[in-house]
C-alpha cells in the first residue's frame, strides 16, 4: 500500500485544464447536495466517469464553500483502489464539476433498502472493504468522519469503495469544534463536541455492521438531540439472545467493541491493525482483497442501481442577494487533472506530509 508521502510534488495549473465541452453528458444517475450526478463520457478516449455538477450559488447559500474546496484538495492527495478517486475537477461561471471513478453498483444504502439485511459472510466482506480504505486514510492522518451506507458504493465486482470527503479532515490535536457528520453514525465524542481521532470512523463501521445484523441502527431518534440522549443513556451491547441464526458470537463481539461509547475503549483506537486482528477478521484474506481477486458474496445487478426518484429537480431556495460575479473568487484553484497530478503545497498537503513524517506506521 502506497502512502501520500511518496507522491511527487507538481505545480498547480492556474488555467482550466478541462471543461464541460470535453465530455458527453449521458444521463443523470443521482443527486448530491448541490446538484445532479451525471454519467459522462470523455470525448477523447471515450472513458466513462461519474460527474458531480454543483451549482455555485447553491454551494454558497448552504455555506458549504469550505466543504467542497476541502474535498477537492483532499482528493488531489489520495488515490487508492478502495476509494472513489477524483480524475478531473474544473468549473465554469455557474457550476463546479468533479469527475470521479464511475461505480456502477450503486450505493450501499440503496441495496440495504432493497435487501433489508445482509448475512454474516456479506457483512464481513463489506466491513473488510471499508477497513481497507480506512487503513489507507488513517495511516496518512485523515479521518473521513462521515462513514455511512450512502457514502459506500459498489464497483461492478461487488467491492465497496469510500466516497464523499467533504467533511474529512487531517488529524489535529484540537478538533472539538468540528461536529459535522450524520446523526446515527456519528461517534459520541464528535456528537458531544470533544476532540476525536480515527476511532470515530470505527464507531460508524460498528453502526453499519449492527444495522446489517439486526435491520436497525443501535441508537435511534428523530433528530440529533434524541440520538445523543439515547447514546448518553445506555451503552448498546449485543447479547447472545440478540444474535440472529447464522451469525457468530465473534461477529457480535466485533460490533460491541466498535460501538464502545468511550473512544479509548473502542476497537481501532490504537490503529487499523487492531481491527484487522480481531478474531472475526483475523483469518480474512486481506492480500487477495486488496488485489480484488476474491469473489464478492454480493454482486449488484448490472443496471439501475439507483433510485430514480432522487434525481428530481431541486426545490430549495437560493439566497437572492447573491450575484454570480461576487462569488467567483471563492472557488479559485478548483482545477485538477489526474493525468498530470497537479497539486500545490497548500495547507492540507503540508498537514498530511507533517503527519506522515512523524508517523512510523506509514506503509511503503
Question: How would you explain this protein's 3D organization?
Answer:
- InterPro entries: AGC-kinase_C, Kinase-like_dom_sf, Prot_kinase_dom, Protein_kinase_ATP_BS, Ser/Thr_kinase_AS, Ser_Thr_kinase_AGC.
- One of its GO terms (biological process) is intracellular signal transduction.
- Keywords: ATP-binding, Kinase, Nucleotide-binding, Serine/threonine-protein kinase, Transferase.
- The chain is an alpha+beta fold and 364 residues long.
- It has 2 domains: 4-103 and 307-357, Phosphorylase Kinase, domain 1, CATH 3.30.200; 108-291, Transferase(Phosphotransferase), domain 1.
- It is 30% helix and 13% strand.
- It has 12 helices and 10 strands.
- It has helices at 56-61, 65-75, 108-115, 120-139, 188-191, 199-214, 224-233, 249-258, 272-276, 286-291, 324-327, 347-357; strands spanning 23-31, 36-42, 48-55, 86-91, 95-100, 142-143, 152-154, 160-162, 169-170, 336-337.
- It has a 6-stranded antiparallel sheet with strand order 1-2-3-5-4-10. Strands 6-9 form a two-stranded antiparallel sheet. The protein has a two-stranded antiparallel ribbon with strand order 7-8.
- Strand 2 and strand 3 (48-55) form a beta hairpin.
- Helix 4 packs antiparallel against helix 6.
- It is globular, with a radius of gyration of 20 Å.
- The N and C termini lie close together (6 Å).
- Residues 1-15 and 359-364 have low confidence and may be disordered.
Amino acid at each position: 500500500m502506497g502512502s501520500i508521502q511518496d507522491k511527487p510534488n507538481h505545480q498547480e495549473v492556474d488555467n482550466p485544464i478541462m471543461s464541460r465541452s470535453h465530455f458527453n453528458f449521458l444521463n443523470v444517475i443521482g443527486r448530491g447536495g448541490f446538484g445532479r450526478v451525471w454519467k459522462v463520457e470523455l470525448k477523447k478516449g471515450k472513458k466513462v466517469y461519474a460527474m458531480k455538477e454543483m451549482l455555485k450559488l447553491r454551494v454558497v447559500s448552504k455555506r458549504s464553500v469550505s466543504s467542497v474546496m476541502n474535498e477537492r484538495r483532499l482528493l488531489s492527495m489520495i488515490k487508492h483502489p478502495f476509494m472513489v478517486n477524483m480524475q478531473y475537477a474544473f468549473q465554469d461561471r455557474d457550476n463546479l464539476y468533479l469527475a470521479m471513478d464511475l461505480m456502477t453498483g450503486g450505493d450501499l444504502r440503496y441495496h440495504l433498502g432493497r435487501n433489508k439485511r445482509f448475512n454474516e459472510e456479506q457483512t464481513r466482506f463489506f466491513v473488510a472493504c471499508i477497513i481497507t480504505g480506512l487503513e489507507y486514510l488513517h495511516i496518512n492522518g485523515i479521518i473521513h468522519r462521515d462513514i455511512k451506507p450512502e457514502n459506500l458504493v459498489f464497483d461492478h465486482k461487488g467491492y465497496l469503495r469510500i466516497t464523499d470527503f467533504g467533511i474529512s479532515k487531517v488529524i489535529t490535536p484540537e478538533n472539538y469544534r468540528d461536529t459535522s457528520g450524520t446523526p446515527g453514525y456519528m461517534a459520541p465524542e464528535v456528537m458531544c463536541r470533544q476532540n476525536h481521532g480515527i476511532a470515530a470512523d470505527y464507531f460508524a463501521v460498528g453502526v453499519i455492521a449492527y444495522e446489517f445484523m439486526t435491520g436497525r441502527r443501535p441508537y435511534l431518534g428523530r433528530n440529533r438531540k434524541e440520538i445523543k440522549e439515547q447514546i448518553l443513556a445506555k451503552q448498546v451491547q449485543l447479547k447472545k439472545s440478540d444474535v440472529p441464526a447464522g451469525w457468530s458470537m465473534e461477529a457480535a463481539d466485533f460490533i460491541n467493541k466498535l460501538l464502545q461509547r468511550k473512544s479509548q475503549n473502542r476497537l481501532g483506537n490504537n490503529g487499523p491493525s487492531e481491527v484487522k486482528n480481531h478474531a472475526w477478521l483475523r483469518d480474512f484474506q486481506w492480500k487477495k482483497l486488496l488485489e480484488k481477486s476474491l469473489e464478492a458474496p454480493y454482486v449488484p445487478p448490472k443496471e439501475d442501481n439507483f433510485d430514480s426518484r432522487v434525481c428530481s429537480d431541486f426545490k430549495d431556495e437560493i439566497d437572492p442577494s447573491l450575484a454570480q460575479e461576487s462569488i467567483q473568487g471563492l472557488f479559485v484553484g478548483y482545477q485538477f487533472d489526474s493525468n498530470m497530478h497537479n497539486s500545490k503545497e497548500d495547507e492540507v498537503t503540508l498537514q498530511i506530509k507533517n503527519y506522515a513524517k512523524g508517523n512510523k506506521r506509514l506503509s511503503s
